Every structure is written in C-alpha cells, then in structure tokens.
Amino acid sequence: MPVLREEHGRLRRRILAGRREQVDRQHSLGKRTARERLDLLLDEGSFVEVDIYRRHRAHTLGMAEQRPHTDGVVAGSGTIGGRRVFVYAQDFTVFGGSLGEAHAEKIHKVMDLAVENGAPLIGINDSGGARIQEGVMSLDGYGGIFRRNVQASGVVPQISVILGPCAGGAAYSPALADFTFMVRDVARMYLTGPDVVRAVTGQEVGHDELGGADVHGRRTGVAAFVHDDEESCLEDVRYLVSLLPGNNMEPSPALPPCGATTDVRPRLPEIVPVEASKPYDMRTVLAEIVDDGEFLEVYEGWARNVVCALGRVDGEVIGAVGNQPMVLAGVLDADAAQKAARFVRFCDAFGIPLVTLVDVPGFLPGTDQEHAGIIRHGAKLLYAYCEATVPRVQVIVRKAYGGAYIVMDSRSIGGDLSLAWPTNEIAVMGAEGAVNVIHRRELAAAADPDGLRSELVAEYTAQLMHPYFAAERGLVDDVIDPADTRAAVARGLAMLRNKRRQPPPRKHGNIPL
C-alpha cells in the first residue's frame, strides 16, 4: 500500500507540474499555463478538479503512443468571492490545447454540472482548434459544446476568456457566451486564419489584424472586454461575477443599502449642458447615479454611441443603457441597437433591473445605415425592451426625439417608470426641423423667413417640446430636479422590486435576428 500511495503521489505531482519544456515555451510566448490562470481566477485553495487522469482513446496516426493525462484541458469548480463557479481552461502545453473526444467530454461534464448546480460557467480558451488526428469525433465534441451553450443560455451566466488562439468552429462557443474577454497580443479569434485567407482571396493579413482583441472589441462586437494583460483580464472576470446571479432563479448578490433614496447629487445639472447640441459624457451622469461612482462598462470600444454597463443602486445590481452624446451626438445606429438589445436581453434573462438614460436625437440617417438594415437592427432593441419583464426605469436626461425615443424604453413599450428633467425636449423631431416641415409654405412666402422661423420655433418649443406636455398625458411619471435623479431612480427601483409580469403562453417569439 505505501508503494501504491507513493506512485500515485508521483503521478499526480507530474501531472500538476506539466512538461517543463512545454511550460517554458508557454511562458516565452507571454502566456500563463492553464493552472496558473485558474490560480489567478479562483479563490485560493478552492479549485476542485475533475477528470485529472482522463486520456484520449484514439489509436490512429500514432496517437496510441501519445496519451498525456488531462488531454489538454483542466476542468472543475471553485469559488470567486466565496461563490461557486464551474470552469475549464484549455492547456496549450498538451497537444496545443487541441480538442479531441476526451477533451470535449470533460468540457461537456463541467457545462452540465454548471447548469445542474445553478452556477456561472467560465471557459478559458487557448487552443489550436480541432484535433485533426481524431477526425470527426473532434467536430462532434464541438457540436456538444455549442448545444450546451444554447441550453445554458439564460439559465446560468456564461463567460468566455480568450487567452490564446481560438480558431475555426471553436470561435462559436465564445460567440454564444454572454460575455467574452480578450487580451491584446495573445488572443486571436477567427473562422479562417491568415493562411486560408491568403490561399482563397490572395489577401495578406496578420493574425491580429484578422481577429485580434481590438478587432473584436472595436469592430465586430464579439469581445465585451479587452485587456492588456492576463492579470487585469482575470481580475475583471472576478468583478463581473460579483455582479451576476448564479442562475436565472436567484437574485444578483446585493450589498447593504447606502442611503441612495435620499441622496442629492448637485453635480448632475452642471454635467449636462442645456443646449441640445453640446456634447457631454453620459458615463459621468451614470457615475453620479450608481453607488460609489463604480460601474463595469460592457462593449466599451464597440458602438460607442450607446453605453451599456452593470453597477449598483442602493446596493442592488442594475443594468444601465444610455445614449452617448460624445459619439455621433448619441444617435442610434445599427451597431448601437444590436449592442443595447443583447445587453437588455441578458439583464432580463437574469432578473437585473434596467435603468435607461435617454438623450437621443434619433436614428442615424443615410444610405449606409438603411442598406445595413437599421430597420431590422433597430427592431431588435425594440423587441428586447418590449419583451423585458424586469423593473424598468427611464430617465430622459435632455432630449428624446422620434422613433428613437420610443425605442429607448418609453412608457408606450412597457417601461414602468419614466422620469424627466425640467429642461427636456420630447417630440417627434427637433423644433427647427418640425417648423421646416409644418410651415414650409409660409416660410417660402415670408419676407423675413429667418425671423419667422425663429418665432415659429419658439412657439413649437413652448407648446409641444417641454416634459410637462408628456407628463400631462401620462407618458412621463414625474418631472424631477436633476440633482434628485439618483434618489428618484433608487426609490423607483425599490417600488418595483417585487414586480411580476407573466408573458403570454408561447414557445418563443420571433425576434428579428
């Protein structure tokens, strides 16, 4: 028995240490090993590994002579801030992290355990792709992962972390996750690599230019978070988990109330210029509303004309969506609509109340947007809000024009509470544009068209564009002092905390994808 125990100990230590030359090579690439990454991600000493002795069963193409334990993925469970998560980390030091049958079955097991235990799933991707030597079994393994991604969607939060290559079909699992993290210079994700692109199209393109972190963080919208190094990336994964519920049946982790319902923020009216054409940063408004000015912005580099973020108000987690006047004057375009729609649907799936900060002049005009499908993409955001059953508070910060006002969670599409500042402009369009349409004949015939236009604009503004016009008709619930915005939002969310709204019986709707 002592001999067996000693042999077992040696084997386990050898597996945990890995092959020295491969570990050194991983470090030389500026990357940590799978186990080092899990040490950074999880609470110290909390990791429980499953299938550490797993090995592949393939015998073709010389595989019978190469059967390392773990089969290139470290899988199991641990805690983050004391809360249970399930994780897998692909190990590039074993078969380049390539996915074969046994590798996939380990990931399948962890995904099933995450759903069965109602805990978040975190996958760390660093893989050369499908293990070609195992043929179609590798593809079957990917299919099992994708199916489980979809089955877990809206049940447990799914987070993908890209810390190396993620190519071919493997890229679809991060695309199906709720949030994807990437690290510059080491992460790359694409369906077809530079060699295939060159062979098929003749185009010369590098790995980072084709599918690097900044490409997916700024252009494609695949990466929700982009970081410069693995340490800050995994630290932000921990922060994100601290804001999320374990599953769709439990509330997000709350902190004790901090007096938000009576908090006055005198800076708010100073931040937002009264003039509708002057820009400001909506994130500074959000910082005045959330606890301690802290929030986690999602898709920060993509579709920057809308801001999506997670934060807390009086200790409770909220999701915030706001137009960003600093970028394209805060208009909605196809990318912004998609970005906000996906975020709204995530929050609704996991019971996170929504706060919508509105300062929108409309949808971005032009043939590029129309041909890019702005109608279809805008309908996604409309659908997402209309479908949402969580508490929904709208704050009209400055202007709300046209169809974009409707889409930004207005009362007419089911928003629970609409608050407006006294300086708001709520209308079909801006006063000058409206006057040019309504009074075009009078203006064309006038001796002094500029003077007449100024009079008509002032009249239109006074009669139709102030928030009291909407409040008198029940479309705005209260006109508030800007300094009271945080308190009003906190009181509104407290009022709506026990909201219950049952959707009509159906299999599912048909969102305009």
UniProtKB/TrEMBL annotation:
<dbReference type="InterPro" id="IPR034733">
    <property type="entry name" value="AcCoA_carboxyl_beta"/>
</dbReference>
<dbReference type="GO" id="GO:0004658">
    <property type="term" value="F:propionyl-CoA carboxylase activity"/>
</dbReference>
<dbReference type="GO" id="GO:0009317">
    <property type="term" value="C:acetyl-CoA carboxylase complex"/>
</dbReference>
<dbReference type="InterPro" id="IPR051047">
    <property type="entry name" value="AccD/PCCB"/>
</dbReference>
<feature type="domain" description="CoA carboxyltransferase C-terminal">
    <location>
        <begin position="269"/>
        <end position="495"/>
    </location>
</feature>
<dbReference type="Pfam" id="PF01039">
    <property type="entry name" value="Carboxyl_trans"/>
</dbReference>
<dbReference type="InterPro" id="IPR029045">
    <property type="entry name" value="ClpP/crotonase-like_dom_sf"/>
</dbReference>
<dbReference type="InterPro" id="IPR011763">
    <property type="entry name" value="COA_CT_C"/>
</dbReference>
<dbReference type="InterPro" id="IPR011762">
    <property type="entry name" value="COA_CT_N"/>
</dbReference>
<feature type="domain" description="CoA carboxyltransferase N-terminal">
    <location>
        <begin position="1"/>
        <end position="256"/>
    </location>
</feature>
<protein>
    <submittedName>
        <fullName>Acyl-CoA carboxylase subunit beta</fullName>
    </submittedName>
</protein>
